[in-house]
Amino acid sequence: MNADFPRVQVLPGLDRASFRVDGAERLAYEFGSGGPRPFLYPLIGPSGRELTRLGHPEPVGHEHHHAIWFGHQNVHGVNFWEERPGRDVSVRHKRVVAYRDGLDWGGLAAEWDWWADGRSLMKQGLRVALAVEEDGSLAIDLSSRFEVEKGPVDLGKTNFGFLGVRVAKTMSERFGGGRLTADDGATGEGAIFGKRYRWVDYTGPTAPGVVEGIAYFDHPSNPGHPAHWHVRADGWFEAAFNLAEAWGLAAGHPLDLRYRLWVHGGKADGARIDASWREFARSADLELAKDAETRLSTLRRGKA
């Protein structure tokens, strides 16, 4: 095989983009029109099994849990977390502005509108990158810039927002054989909920004899780092940006947030996860730039 052939490719479709490693899908960005929000699903672990789920294991309620998704319960008084019929409230995918394939990582950049009652309250520029590591682990970076054209817009105090992750049923503490673990070794919903951590991991069985996990990293550049965490034994967790206090957005003063989902095989190894978090903390952010020859937008790593 040609050494320059991109091992990681992001292939656009009609209403989704597929992140593939060596030709096999590992992640997808779903952005079909008519839905309440774009989201990422599925996430495939090193074993080839799914690590995320659409919706709560109980069939009624929590339909807004779209595997890996962005939402917020109080954007200037508007609830972008739950999805209720008959409301003009949605997070709208506008367009993908860049795709990138590569030897070690690939990604995309998209533009979103947080829309309510006939107008855009807030804009989000999302950059997603998937990198594959030598042992088969995956590093999924999600970098966002939230900004407003007119302001101020208040992000109210709430447990809900921004980036939620729902794991597979078998990985949950309540419905499966999983375990939540935080960076200080604390385990379980009761010990972790509302506390501040650099990272929290959710690990559990994905097949007979197979254990895999998702470690969710908060970047030290994020305001309020280390994050307060909203975690649940029923299978979801979130770095809750506004759990402790509100935040204001004004024109010309964006909010930048960086997170990484580190997908690993095997049980949660605190030392190994911590080393991966430290690598993330040192890493350069994703950025958009213009290619000098084509004048097209390109996705790249900035300077650390």
Number of H/I helices: 2
Q: Work out the number of β strands.
A: 21
Distance between the termini: 32 Å
Q: Which runs of at least 5 residues are low in confidence (pLDDT < 50)?
A: none
What is the helix fraction of residues, given as a range? under 10%
- List the quaternary state of the chains: single chain
Would you tell me the structural class of the helices and strands? mainly beta
CA-atom Rg in angstroms: 18 Å
Which sequence of SSEs, written as H and E, runs from N to C?
EEEEEEEEEEEEHEEEEEEEHEE
Task: Note down, in words, how this protein is organized.
Strand 8 (119-132) and strand 9 form a beta hairpin. This protein has 2 helices and 21 strands. The mean pLDDT is 95. By secondary structure, it is mainly beta. An 8-stranded antiparallel beta sheet has the order 6-7-8-9-19-15-14-12, with helices on one face. Strands 5-11-17-16-13 form a 5-stranded antiparallel beta sheet, with no helix packed on it. A 4-stranded antiparallel beta sheet has the order 1-2-3-4, with no helix packed on it. It has helices at residues 189-192, 270-282; strands spanning 8-12, 16-21, 24-30, 39-43, 68-72, 89-100, 105-116, 119-132, 138-147, 153-155, 161-166, 179-182, 196-197, 199-207, 210-218, 227-232, 236-240, 247-249, 255-265, 286-290, 297-301.
Topology:
Elements: E1 8-12, E2 16-21, E3 24-30, E4 39-43, E5 68-72, E6 89-100, E7 105-116, E8 119-132, E9 138-147, E10 153-155, E11 161-166, E12 179-182, H1 189-192, E13 196-197, E14 199-207, E15 210-218, E16 227-232, E17 236-240, E18 247-249, E19 255-265, H2 270-282, E20 286-290, E21 297-301
Antiparallel strand pairs: 1-2, 2-3, 3-4, 5-11, 6-7, 7-8, 8-9, 9-19, 10-18, 11-17, 12-14, 13-16, 14-15, 15-19, 16-17, 20-21
